[in-house]
Amino acid sequence: MSQESTAYDAARIQVLEGREAVRRRPGMYIGSTGERGLSHLVFEVADRAVNEVLAGVGSRVDVTLLLDGGVRVADDGAGVPLHEARGGGPALEALLTRTWAGVGPGGRHDVALGGVGLSVVNALSGRMTAEVRREGARWVQEYARGVALTPLTEAGPAAASGTTLTFWRDTDIFPTAGYSFDALAERFRELALLNRGLEISLTDERRPGDRRSVRFRFPGGTRDFVALLDARDPAPAATAVIGVEGEDPRMAGTVEVALRWRDAGEERIRSFANSRPTAGGTHVVGFRDGVAAAVTAYARKRLLPGATDPGLTAEQVGAGLTAVVSVKLDDPEFEGCIRDLLGNTAVRACVARAVRDRLGAWLEGHPEQAAAIVGRLVRGA
To answer: How far apart are CA 119 and CA 22, in angstroms?
Structure first.
């Protein structure tokens, strides 16, 4: 090997920024250039629309898989602002071309479906169109591979407000992959279950004559989530669905939990932080602590055989338990190689206390159901 071929100096260092970096290494931003990556694109575009609804300035989000391979995401919110953004240029163009540009309050009030921003979707799209309906006027703009092809142009009056973004994947980057209706529907259903005010629809128009459409809205929140998880379980429910809700300034956030026991079966727990699925963390540990404390206290008060020190463990009270644990925090801290574990220390004690107090009150108020389920757990232990 020659000295020239192995030379390493500043001239050999490449600096890639913005759309160029995204297009050179798309997997670093969306995970893959297959089906998973395409789903990520949809979630990124839906992210802003969902948060419009959760902020109270919109009522619904409609996602459509189009016949020509495009994806349209529409909302009836206030419409993306049109004034000049910081650094110059229209706010819409900044949102779609500048890395990490975004809108929304953030913190517990913001749902992060994607996390890398609309500029990444635009950079990886062969074409994108934006339509903003705001203050009685309709504005449109066209993009290709992250670059604006036209200026933001007024295109007539608008009877209502909102934003519609439509994008077509760049086939040079995604040559064969397609969108999975079922995978998208599962995540949108999950979001609607975790956010009571959200209404979201998904429509598939890719096959003429075989149009599919689903609409999600769940007023019961996590209670509906638990009922859905148990819907196909052959073991009958041993208790009603028990809800736990509250805000705790010590963890700078809120907790929403729903749980119930079945007559048999393994423990089934789904956990989320800021509507993001987690593999566990301090919120789950706190939930288990709270359930064990409430059941143990009830068993000892009723002098049930076996309810002695050191008490029931979190594993022992999980037999037949179905639960959804959701926290929304101003500053969530994620751990693990793929950041799927919640690490906020204060969350454990806050969730444990909320669950212990609410579940304890429910057990006292429903003596027949409580005696049956607690007795079974004590005997099993």
So the answer is: 9
* Spatial separation of the C-alpha atoms in residues 360 and 346, rounded to whole Å: 21
| End-to-end Cα distance, the chain | 69
- Mean pLDDT (the chain) is 88
**Phi and psi dihedrals of 79, rounded to 5?**
90, 140
What CATH number is attached to the domain comprising 61? 3.30.565.10
Do 245 and 201 share a structural domain?
Answer: no
The per-residue pLDDT for range 95-127, each reduced to its tens digit, is 899 875 444 545 776 776 666 789 999 999 999
Exposure on the CB side of residue 314, measured as CA atoms within 13 A: 11
Which range of residues forms the domain containing residue 330?
222-380
Query: In terms of DSSP H, where are the helices of 57-166?
Result: 91-97, 118-123
Which band of pLDDT confidence, cut at 50, 70 and 90, is reported for residue 5? low
**pLDDT band at 2; cut points 50, 70, 90:** low
- For residue 210 the two structure tokens come to 């075989």
* Residue 243 CA to its chain's centroid (Å): 20
DSSP-assigned beta bridge partners for residue 71? 65, 167
Asked if residues 255 and 320 have their Cβ atoms less than 8 Å apart, the reply is no
- Domain CATH code at residue 325: 3.30.230.10
Instruction: Decide: helix, strand or coil at residue 342.
Output: strand
The answer to whether the beta carbons of residues 178 and 38 sit under 8 Å apart is yes
Sheet (strand 334-335) strand order: 280-281, 341-342, 334-335
Q: Each residue of 148-197: pLDDT tens digit?
A: 999 999 999 999 999 999 999 999 999 877 899 999 999 999 999 999 98
